[in-house]
Amino acid sequence: MTAKIIDGKTVAAELRARIASEVARLKSAHGVTPGLAVVLVGADPASEVYVRNKSKAVTEAGMNPVDRHLPATVSEVELLALIAQLNADPKVNGILVQLPLPKHIDAQKVIHAIASEKDVDGFHPLNVGRHASGSPGLVPCTPLGCVILAKTVKPSLEGLDAVVIGRSNIVGKPVAQLLLSENATVTIAHSKTRDLAAVCRRADVLIAAIGRPEFVRGDWIKPGAIVIDVGINRVTGEGGKSKIVGDVAYAEASRVAGAITPVPGGVGPMTIACLLLNTLRATCEHNNLPAPSL
Ligand code: NDP
């Protein structure tokens, strides 16, 4: 058996195209253009690349990018003042603060300062609480992307056994919550889980969000399972060249799984597409327009 490859690049491109046409419709029918503010503090090279890619995607979707780059020396008070200004700006529908922040700034405090209706990362405690209690709110982008990808294989996840490895606030917990709202039976595994391999073997849907290269082996996978690999790990490959691998041993797993996301080209591209989706949803909400069904 060879697993179907879940092509995140294609799924993300299709979603972005649907978002762009919805943005064009919003503009022509209501004169509204979604605006996304991306705040970058300092000059971390990886963060700069992420921010550049986000701004490019925002522009391509027909939205307004509002980029704010601050020096690494900016004080917490100054950053909070910028957030307050963006919260009050009617042209800004979404606010994203690129993490990590310099050590002298309390990231929690900054996330809490973002107006929850503009919190397109879905990290604000109000959105976390809304999600947990089944109320509408903004949901974190990477977890949303994982579930969209799983549903390209099986449109209904109802009744399936889902195992999530990882319990971070950014990926593990919200993806488990989303799977629960899809009526899957969800297990959250972590570093203290006993016999992780046996737990994984029960999974019809396995989500790996660990941050350890090729940690999940082929014989941990239930035959036919849907495997979503969130991991992004830089390792040294053949000839000393650096390359990116996921949390799942792809070659082994793809001989057993029914469908699997590659790394790169799986979950990664979905994160930006879901950021655009959240910005579009927030814009509709701010303008009392019905949320688009994408
Ligand atoms: P964290 O380090 O915050 O969380 C890792 C989780 O994995 C923890 O819950 C930890 O358990 C668990 N874990 C660690 N070691 C083991 C082990 N030996 N057995 C079982 N569980 C273990 O990472 P993130 O959630 O932020 O990210 C996870 C991965 O996803 C990373 O590779 C990251 O780069 C990637 N990522 C990719 C994104 C994308 O867009 N594709 C976006 C965000 C992240 P415990 O809680 O017990 O310590």
Record keyword descriptors for this entry.
single chain; 294 residues; Rossmann fold; six-stranded parallel beta sheet; three-stranded parallel beta sheet; 10 helices; 16% strand; binds NADPH dihydro-nicotinamide-adenine-dinucleotide phosphate
Average per-residue pLDDT, rounded, comes to: 97
Name of the top-level CATH class of the largest domain? Alpha Beta
Architecture of the largest domain, according to CATH?
Answer: 3-Layer(aba) Sandwich
CATH topology group of the largest domain: Rossmann fold
Task: Round the Cα radius of gyration to an integer and report it.
Answer: 19 Å
Q: What class would the helix/strand composition place it in?
A: alpha/beta
Please mark out the parts with pLDDT under 50 across 5 or more consecutive residues, or reply none. Answer: none
Small molecules (ligands, ions, cofactors) in the structure: NADPH dihydro-nicotinamide-adenine-dinucleotide phosphate
Spell the H/E element sequence.
Answer: EHEHEHEHHHEHEHEEEEHEH
- Overall 3D shape: globular
Instruction: Let me know the largest β-sheet.
Output: 6 strands, parallel
Q: What fraction of residues sit in β-strands?
A: 15-25%
Distance between the termini: 33 Å
Topology:
Blueprint: E1 4-5, H1 8-30, E2 35-41, H2 45-60, E3 64-70, H3 76-88, E4 94-97, H4 107-113, H5 125-132, H6 141-153, E5 161-165, H7 172-181, E6 185-189, H8 196-201, E7 205-208, E8 226-229, E9 233-236, E10 242-245, H9 250-253, E11 259-260, H10 267-286
Residues 142, 165-168, 170-172, 189-193, 196, 209-212, 230-233, 267-268, 271 line the site of NADPH dihydro-nicotinamide-adenine-dinucleotide phosphate.
